[in-house]
Write a structure and sequence with these properties.
heterodimer, A: alpha+beta, Phosphoribosyl-aminoimidazole Synthetase, Chain A, domain 2, seven-stranded mixed β-sheet, 28 strands, disordered C terminus, B: Rossmann fold, two-stranded antiparallel ribbon, 11 strands, globular
C-alpha cells in the first residue's frame, strides 16, 4: 500500500465526525489554526457523548459521591470503598449496548473485557461479575439470536479470564426490540494502600505501551457507534465493533497485577473507548502534565496504519502506563514473561501539551486540558413529555379483576421476565476463585472476601443489580428510587449492609427534551435514594442514544448495590430451607397494580403511577433484616418484587440450589382486591422464614416495620387462601417449578432441553 | 511438596493452591510452564483447570508442548502421582498420559452446575477417603467435557476398573438424565492403568469449604494427600 494522504479538514469533515458547528469553532479557537486530520479525530472522540458525558455531566454533579467508606469516587477508572482489614473493593458497571446489538458475541465479550480492565487498572484483582441484559421479545427470532450471542459472548470472555459471574438480571420488553442493553459489572479486591490511579506524573518518566498490538478494529466505536442512535443502516457500523481476546486479557491481568506488586510504575490506564487517545489524554490531564509520544514505536498488527487510525483504534487488551525512569527494563520483562508486548513509546513532559510524532513529523500538538477535563458541558433543554400525564393515569376500577388466580400465577411464572434464568447463568463460571457463597438465582450474590495473598477473611460482600424499566417509563424519578431501594433490599436479604452504588444510565437521545427530562428525573431519584440510604455513588456510566428510528428505549437506570457482611457464614438464603418454619411478611401491601407484571401480562396495560417508595421505611427494613439475620432469627429472606407476593412465595418453595423443594401454606386477610394482594408490587416488602416468629414480629414492631405471620412451610404444595379459607391457589410445587424452569428454554430454538436434567 | 502447574490461561491454579495449602495444610507451590524440571521434593503434580493458551486450538492441545510437560511425563513414568481437573484432564488426554479425549458438550453450551458423581472404586490413591458407591457433589464448569474413546478402549477402561467417577443422580443411579455433557458411560473421571494418573472434569478444589460449594472435593484431594504421606513414610 502506498502512503495515503490525510483528507482536508474542514467544517464538513468535522460534522461527519459527529462534531457540531460550535464545537468545531471552539477547536479552531483552542488551536489557533485548522486541526490536522488526527487532531480532528482526537477532538471528535474525546468530545463525544460517550467519552465526555457532556449531556449528563452537569446533572451527575448533584449525586452524593462521598462518605466514610469511599476511597475513590467517580473520575477514575472505577470507584473504591473500604471493606475493612486493610482491603478495598473496586467496582463499576458499564454499558456495551450498541456493539452488542450489531455483533452480539463480540460486543458482549468486549463489554466484559472493558469493565475488567477498568478494575485491574486500579490494581485490584477482578473477582466477581454481574451482567444486566435486556432484549426484545423472544418470539422475535432476531432476539433469540441476540440472547444466544450475548450470553455466549459474556461466558466466552468471562470464563477464560477466570472471573466468576455471580449474578445479574435478564429482561425482555418490546422497547428493546431496536436497541438491546448489555451492562457489565465487575468488582475487584485490592489492598487499600495499593490502589493505582491513571496519572502521568514525574517529568521525564517513560510512557509504556503494553498488551495486544494495535489494529484497525473499533475505530470510532465511542464516537460514531456509542454516541449516535441507530437507523436502518446500522449494519454498516460493524467495523466499529472491537474484537476481544480473553486469553490475552487473562495474561494482561496477571502481568499487570504482578507489576503492581512492585514499585516500578506510577500511573496506569487501560485503552478503552478512544484507545490510545483517551488513555494518554486522561493520564496527562489528571496529573497536569504533558506527553510526548512516537507512533512509530507502537506495536501494530496491520500494515501501514495511519496516525489517525493508530490514535483512534479501539483494539482490545491494551494498557498505557508511566514507569519510574530507569525501571523500563524491569517492566518490560514482566510482560515478556506473559508473552505480551511492552515498549516505551514516549515520556512525560511539563508542557501541558500532547505532542505526537510519526515518521519524524509532528502530527498532533494540542493542549491537554481543553480536550480532556475541560471538554464542553451542555445544559440541554428538558421538558416533561406531553404524554406523561396520560401515562400516569390508571383507574383501577376499570381494570377487570383476575378471574383465574392460579392461571395468572402460572402465566407469570411462564413469562421470560419472571421465569428461571438458569439457561443464562449456567453458561457462566460461577465458581472460579472459590469465593461464591450465594450463586446466581437468589436476591443478591454473596462472595467471601480473601486477602490479596489468598488468605481467607470472615467477611463477605453482597451485590445485586436492579431496575424496573416499566416503572422508570411511567415515572423516572419514582422508578429510579425503586431501583436503588430494590438493589439495597436484595443485598440486605442476605444479611449484608448496603454500602455504595454504581450505576449505568441507559437512555434515548438526549437532544430530545423529553428524553433529557427522563434522564434528569432519574438522576434526581438516584441522588435522593442514595442520600437516604447513605450509600454514595462511587462510579458509573451513561449510555445515551439508545434508540432506533426515533423510538427510544424505556429509561433504564441499572443500579448495583454493594454491601458488606461481617461474617459471611451468617447469611440468609432466599428460599425455604426446611419445613415447619413460620413465614412472616415484612412491609405493607397497598392496592398497587399500576406498573405490575400482572397488569402488563394479563391486561396488556402499562399505565399509572408506579408503587410508592418510602425511603425511610426501606432503611428501617434493611436494618431489621441485617440484625435479624446476624442474630440467626431470620433464616431466609426474599424480596417481594416482580409478580408480587404470590410469585415471591412460589419462588421460595423451589429455588434451593440443591434442587429440593418445600411447600407452604399461607393465609392472607383480604383487605384489598385479591389480584392486588397476590400480584401487586408494593415496594418495601420482604418474606422471611423463621423458627421464631415472635422475635421477628417484636423486632419489626420496635422499628415500626409492619409485619404479620402469614403461614408455615412444609408439604409438597403451595396453598394460598383467604382468612375465611377461600382457596385462591393450591398447586403442587413440582408443577409450578416445571413451568418456571421452562419459561426461557421453551422459547428458544434449541428447545433448551440440553444437557439433561441434572 | 505439591506442584501446581501454571500455564498461561490457567484459572483454577490459585484455587488448587488454596485447597491444598490453606484447607489441607500441605506444602504446595505454583510451577511455571516454562520450567523444564520439577522441584526435587515433588510428590504430587496437579494440573489445574482453565483455558491454557486460550484453548484456541483443541483444549489442552497446546499445553502438552509446554516445557514443563516433559518433566510431568517423566514424573508420571516414574510412578509419581498426577491429578488433572477439567483443562488439566484435557491436557492429560492430549499428552497421552490418559486415553481418550474430551469433546464439546452435547448441546454445545458451556455448563456450570453442581453435579452428583458416583465413586466406582475406593481402593485407589485418589478415592481412599470415600466408600464405593458414595455420591459426591462437586461442581463442573466446562464447554468440552464429553469423554470419548473408541469401543475397544472403553471396554479396556471398564475391564480394568479405570473409571473412578460417573455422573449420577442424587440417589447414585447412573442415568442418561444425570449425564450433563454426553460423556460415554457417564464418565466424570478416569485413572491410567498403573493407577497413578487421574483426570476428572468436576472441580474438587471448588468443593473444599462448608458454605462455599461443600466439602466433597476434599475427599479426593485428601485421599491423594494421604497417599503421598504414606509413600513418604514407606
Amino acid at each position: 500500500m502506498t502512503e495515503c494522504k490525510d483528507p482536508m479538514v474542514d467544517l464538513e469533515l468535522a460534522r461527519a465526525h459527529g462534531l457540531t458547528d460550535g464545537e468545531y469553532a471552539l477547536i479552531l479557537e483552542i488551536l489557533g489554526r485548522t486541526p490536522t486530520y488526527p487532531e480532528l479525530g482526537i477532538f471528535s472522540v474525546m468530545w463525544s457523548e460517550h467519552c465526555s458525558y457532556k449531556s449528563s455531566k452537569v446533572h451527575l454533579k448533584t449525586l452524593p459521591t462521598t462518605g466514610k467508606v469511599v476511597l475513590q469516587g467517580p473520575g477514575e477508572n472505577a470507584g473504591a470503598i473500604d471493606i475493612g482489614e486493610g482491603l478495598a473493593a473496586v467496582f463499576k458497571i458499564e454499558s456495551h449496548n450498541h456493539p452488542s446489538f450489531i455483533s452480539p458475541v463480540q460486543g458482549a465479550a468486549t463489554g466484559v473485557g472493558g469493565i475488567l480492565r477498568d478494575i485491574f487498572t486500579m490494581g485490584a484483582r477482578p473477582t466477581a461479575s454481574l451482567d444486566s441484559i435486556r432484549f426484545g421479545p423472544l418470539e422475535d427470532p432476531k432476539h433469540r439470536y441476540l440472547l444466544h450471542g450475548v450470553v455466549e459472548g459474556i461466558g466466552g470472555y468471562g470464563n477464560p479470564v477466570g472471573v466468576a459471574t455471580v449474578g445479574g438480571e435478564t429482561q425482555f420488553h418490546e422497547c428493546y426490540r431496536g436497541n438491546i442493553l448489555v451492562n457489565a459489572f465487575n468488582l475487584g479486591i485490592v489492598d487499600a494502600d495499593r490502589i493505582f490511579r491513571a496519572k502521568a506524573v514525574g517529568i521525564g518518566n517513560p510512557v509504556i505501551y503494553a498488551g495486544s498490538k494495535t489494529g484497525r478494529d473499533g475505530i470510532h466505536g465511542a464516537s460514531l457507534l456509542a454516541s449516535a442512535e441507530f437507523d436502518e443502516k446500522t449494519d454498516e457500523k460493524l467495523p466499529t465493533v472491537q474484537v476481544g481476546d480473553p486469553f490475552t486479557e487473562k495474561c494482561l491481568i496477571e502481568a499487570c497485577l504482578e507489576l503492581m506488586a512492585t514499585d516500578f510504575i506510577v500511573g496506569i490506564q487501560d485503552m478503552g473507548a478512544a484507545g490510545l487517545t483517551s488513555s494518554s489524554f486522561e493520564m496527562a490531564s489528571s496529573a497536569g502534565t504533558g506527553i510526548e509520544m512516537d507512533l512509530d514505536r507502537i506495536p501494530t498488527r496491520a500494515a501501514d496504519l495511519t496516525p489517525y487510525e493508530m490514535l483512534l483504534s479501539e483494539s482490545q487488551e491494551r494498557m498505557l502506563m508511566v514507569a519510574k525512569a530507569g525501571c523500563e527494563a524491569e517492566v518490560c520483562k514482566i510482560f515478556e514473561r506473559w508473552g505480551l508486548d511492552a515498549v516505551v513509546v514516549g515520556r512525560v513532559t511539563d508542557t501541558g501539551r500532547m505532542v505526537i510524532r510519526s515518521r519524524d513529523e509532528i502530527v498532533v500538538d494540542i493542549p491537554v486540558d481543553p480536550v480532556a477535563d475541560n471538554s464542553p458541558e451542555l445544559k440541554r433543554p428538558y421538558a416533561r413529555p406531553a404524554e406523561q400525564d396520560q401515562r400516569q393515569t390508571l383507574t383501577l376500577e376499570s381494570v377487570a379483576p383476575e378471574q383465574d388466580l392460579q392461571g395468572a400465577l402460572e402465566a407469570l411464572l411462564d413469562s421470560p421476565n419472571l421465569g428461571s434464568k438458569e439457561w443464562v447463568y449456567r453458561q457462566y463460571d460461577q465458581r472460579v476463585q472459590g469465593n461464591t457463597v450465594l450463586a446466581p438465582g437468589g436476591d443478591a450474590a454473596l462472595i467471601r472476601i480473601k486477602h490479596t495473598d489468598g488468605t481467607p477473611t470472615s467477611h463477605g460482600l453482597a451485590m445485586a443489580v436492579d431496575c424496573n424499566p416499566r416503572w422508570c417509563f411511567l415515572d423516572p424519578y419514582t422508578g429510579t428510587l425503586a431501583a436503588v431501594a430494590e438493589a439495597a433490599r436484595n443485598v440486605a436479604c442476605t444479611g449484608a449492609r448496603p454500602l455504595a452504588v454504581t450505576n449505568c444510565l441507559n437512555f434515548g437521545n438526549p437532544e430530545k427534551p423529553d428524553v433529557m427530562w427522563q434522564l434528569v428525573e432519574s438522576i434526581r431519584g438516584l441522588g435522593d435514594a442514595c442520600k437516604a440510604f447513605d450509600t454514595p455513588v462511587i462510579s458509573g456510566n451513561v449510555s445515551l442514544y439508545n434508540e432506533t428510528a426515533g423510538r427510544a428505549i424505556y429509561p433504564t437506570p441499572t443500579v448495583v448495590m454493594v454491601g458488606r457482611l461481617d461474617d459471611w457464614g451468617q447469611h440468609a438464603v432466599s428460599y425455604f430451607p426446611s419445613a415447619d418454619l413460620s413465614i412472616v411478611l415484612l412491609g405493607a401491601t397497598r392496592e398497587e397494580l399500576a406498573g405490575s407484571e400482572w397488569l402488563a401480562l394479563r391486561r396488556g396495560i402499562e399505565a399509572g403511577m408506579p408503587p410508592v417508595v418510602d425511603l425511610a421505611h426501606e432503611r428501617r427494613l434493611q436494618d431489621l433484616l441485617c440484625e435479624g439475620i446476624a442474630k440467626g432469627t431470620i433464616r431466609a429472606a426474599h424480596d417481594v418484587s416482580d409478580g408480587g407476593l404470590a410469585v415471591a412465595l412460589t419462588e421460595m418453595c423451589f429455588t434451593a440450589p440443591d434442587g429440593r423443594s418445600v411447600g407452604a401454606s399461607v393465609r392472607l386477610a383480604a383487605t384489598l382486591r385479591v389480584d392486588a394482594l397476590l400480584f401487586g408490587e408494593s415496594t418495601g416488602r420482604v418474606l422471611v422464614a423463621t423458627t421464631n416468629p415472635e422475635a421477628v414480629l417484636r423486632a419489626a414492631n420496635a422499628c415500626s416495620v409492619p409485619a404479620q405471620t402469614i403461614g408455615k412451610t412444609g408439604g409438597e404444595r403451595l396453598r394460598i387462601e383467604s382468612a375465611d379459607t377461600e382457596v385462591w391457589i393450591d398447586a403442587s410445587v413440582k408443577h409450578l417449578k416445571k413451568i418456571w424452569e421452562r419459561a426461557i428454554p421453551r422459547r428458544l430454538s434449541d428447545g433448551g432441553a440440553h444437557e439433561g436434567g441434572a | 511438596m505439591i506442584a501446581v502447574i501454571q500455564f498461561p490461561g490457567s484459572n483454577d491454579d490459585r484455587d488448587m493452591l488454596f485447597a491444598m495449602k490453606t484447607i489441607l495444610g500441605a506444602e504446595a507451590s505454583l510451577i511455571w510452564h516454562q520450567e523444564t524440571v520439577l522441584p526435587a521434593k515433588t510428590e504430587i503434580v496437579l494440573l489445574p483447570g482453565g483455558f491454557s493458551y486460550g484453548d484456541y486450538l483443541r483444549c489442552g492441545a497446546m499445553a502438552r508442548f509446554s516445557p514443563v510437560m516433559g518433566a510431568v511425563q517423566r514424573f508420571a513414568d516414574a510412578g509419581g502421582f498426577v491429578l488433572g481437573t477439567c483443562n488439566g484432564f484435557q491436557v492429560l488426554c492430549e499428552s497421552g498420559l490418559l486415553p481418550g479425549i474430551l469433546l464439546r458438550n452435547r448441546k454445545l453450551h458451556f455448563l456450570c452446575q453442581n453435579t452428583a458423581v458416583r465413586v466406582e472404586r475406593s481402593d485407589t490413591i485418589f478415592t481412599s477417603r470415600t466408600k464405593p458407591g458414595e455420591v459426591l457433589w462437586i461442581p463442573i464448569k466446562h464447554g468440552e467435557g464429553a469423554y470419548y474413546a473408541d469401543t475397544k478402549q472403553m471396554q479396556r477402561l471398564e475391564d480394568n476398573g479405570q473409571i473412578l467417577l460417573r455422573y449420577c443422580d442424587a440417589e447414585g443411579s447412573v442415568t442418561e438424565d444425570a449425564n450433563p455433557n454426553g460423556s460415554l458411560h457417564n464418565i466424570a473421571g478416569i485413572v491410567n492403568e498403573r493407577g497413578n494418573v487421574f483426570g476428572l472434569m468436576p472441580h474438587p478444589e471448588h468443593a473444599v469449604e462448608e458454605g462455599i460449594g461443600g466439602t466433597d472435593g476434599l475427599k479426593i484431594l485428601g485421599s491423594l494427600l494421604d497417599a503421598a504421606l504414606a509413600r513418604r513414610k514407606a
